[in-house]
Amino acid sequence: MNMRSQGFIVHTIILPTAPQPDTLVAIFLLKKFGERVFPGIKEARVKIWQTLPAEKSAEILEKEGHLLIDIGMGCFDHHGKKDATASGLVAFFLGVSDDPALAKMLEYARRDDLFGKGTVSADPIDRAFGLSALVYHLNRSLSQDASRTVGLVLPFLIAHYNEERKRAHELPREFASLKDAGKATSFVLRHGNKNVKAIVVESDNISLAGYLRSREGGRIDVVGQYLSSGHANILTRPAKRIDLRNTVSLIRIREAELQKRDIDLSLEESAKPGRLKKIPEWYYDRATNSIQNGGVNPRSVPPTRIPKPEMVKILALGLTHTLR
Description:
By secondary structure, the protein is α/β, with parallel strands linked by helices. The protein folds into 2 domains: 3-171, no CATH class; 182-320, Diaminopimelate Epimerase, Chain A, domain 1, CATH 3.10.310. It is built from 12 helices and 10 strands. The strands form 2 sheets. Strands 4-5-6-7-10-9-8 form a 7-stranded mixed beta sheet. Strands 2-1-3 form a 3-stranded parallel beta sheet. The longest helix has 35 residues, at 146-180. The chain starts with a helix and ends with a helix.
């Protein structure tokens, strides 16, 4: 049956074994992108048949509303197809194989299915809590309820895809727009014995700072982000090991000056981690190596009075000179 041209109404997805990462990704793709071709797929339940009914062909089962994955030698059965995966076949069929937002997910499914390397780390904790191991344990606990296993895992795949879609499509467009509007100021400086890329942007998008620090976003080492509320946060890229002590000291001292507070603190004292009672606007988090003026959810933390142009100068000075 040429499913691409005809499609059919689906009420049940059939698997030959308990859901595996590859078939779970295939089901995610079908539910996310396949409703037009397979009406009903979003709400379709999942059942496990080790063999097909002897009296019914795969084509008859499809006409009855069963979508077969990895069974029946149909369109989505990768057995006997060299280097193929069920998720890869589904992605090709739906025309989403080249979507960069799906690249990591499809590669994870391929690596897990073909090489048993869903989790590469040899660390036992990493392996125990990697998705592949968790799926295995779910299947053991819910051996009679494949639909529930699928229902528990799909939200993780959906969340991953949503963030990847932002990184691949939405965030590059937003960042380009910010630059065009003059709301992004970038600069390069010398920090110790290494060059550091820094930027200060104005945006309420909480995913933007992570994007800018990623490979796709340019691997920016220090990102200062101003929210429309007036709050600002400074985040760093862990691989660069940025020393923020001098920077947080300068920020706190300038904040106190603008607030007309007499704090009487040395550079060393004003560089202490945590929150200083005299300057509650700023929290220095050594664990994440960030300086936060309320984080992504400021609540009762008052916004900084340091304007963006001045913050650019403070970052440039603070990062160029470090405390001994």
